[in-house]
Specification:
Blueprint: E1 3-7, E2 24-26, E3 50-51, E4 60-67, E5 70-80, E6 83-86, H1 88-91, E7 98-102, E8 115-119, E9 122-125, E10 138-141, E11 169-174, E12 190-197, H2 199-205, E13 214-217, E14 233-236, E15 239-246, E16 250-252
Parallel strand pairs: 2-5
Antiparallel strand pairs: 1-9, 3-12, 4-5, 4-7, 5-6, 6-10, 7-8, 9-10, 11-12, 11-14, 12-13, 13-16, 14-15, 15-16
């Protein structure tokens, strides 16, 4: 995996700043052209999900990202004591330091379980392309190692390079928009499960834009993630298999 470091300033904070939640907006990619064929990949909407059991996904983090126009929001995963994995499109135009909230369930409250770290040490895949949605992966290096506890834990990583999860049930999580009418991110962490489908089927809908390094999950029954969930984990049996990169259920495969 080829990556290039783009910013190197780091600081640390341990309490959430006051936020204007109406000004926090989800970071997401524009919708690629796709058809509404009867294979369970409808237009973006979030239904069929539910509130996560509090702190059942201790590897999940929330990212508050200063960008031109305000503060964007994305998800991420803890992969080591000093590394947070996320999507490149979440952090490729950051201005200053990203505020990383670990150990949260209600992202709008300063919960005693939370740790807030600010870092501008961001590494984006050198071959990231927003036009083709390829290599949409980045990681943030923390200024010092995080001490793990029951609320803050690294995610499990695959023990091999298997990339065919077709038919497996995957779980996605995040604080993204909880409905089509929502104007800001969800207060509480939500989860949704859906089956992974073959890239061949997915490519029919996305007009050949799906690459071998992508994974697609079916939106059959209206289940899906939504804007603001970008960068968060897609797991199979609590093992990270991909990063959420698009609200129409496309996942980046550069793990």
């Amino acid at each position: 995996m080829k990556l290039i470091t783009v910013i190197l300033l780091v600081t640390v904070a341990f309490a959430q700043a006051e936020r204007n939640w109406d000004e926090i907006f989800p970071r997401h990619l524009p919708d690629p052209p796709h058809s509404l064929l009867p294979h369970g990949i409808p237009s973006p909407r979030i239904t069929g999900g539910e509130e996560a059991e509090p702190h059942s996904r201790p590897f999940q983090v929330g990212l508050f990202i200063p960008v031109s126009g305000g503060t964007a929001f994305c998800g991420g995963s803890i992969i080591s004591p000093i590394h947070i994995l996320t999507a490149a499109h979440c952090v490729d135009s950051v201005i200053g330091g990203v505020e990383i909230v670990l150990g949260a369930h209600n992202i709008r409250r300063t919960e005693p379980t939370q740790l807030v770290v600010v870092s501008s040490n961001i590494t984006v895949h050198r071959d990231w392309s927003s036009s083709t949605i390829r290599n949409d992966i980045a990681y943030i290096t923390l200024p010092e190692p995080v001490e793990f506890n029951e609320y803050i834990q690294p995610i499990g990583l695959p023990l091999d390079d298997r990339n065919n999860f077709n038919g497996d049930t995957a779980v996605a999580s995040g604080w993204g928009l909880s409905s089509d009418s929502a104007t800001t991110i969800s207060e509480i962490l939500r989860v949704v499960d859906f089956p992974i489908i073959s890239n061949t089927v997915c490519n029919i809908a996305y007009l050949g834009n799906i690459h071998p390094t992508n994974i697609c999950a079916s939106g059959s029954g209206g289940k899906s993630t939504c804007n603001g969930d970008s960068g968060g984990p897609l797991t199979v049996d609590d093992t990270l298999v991909n990063i959420h990169i698009h609200s129409t259920r496309t996942y980046n495969g550069q793990t």
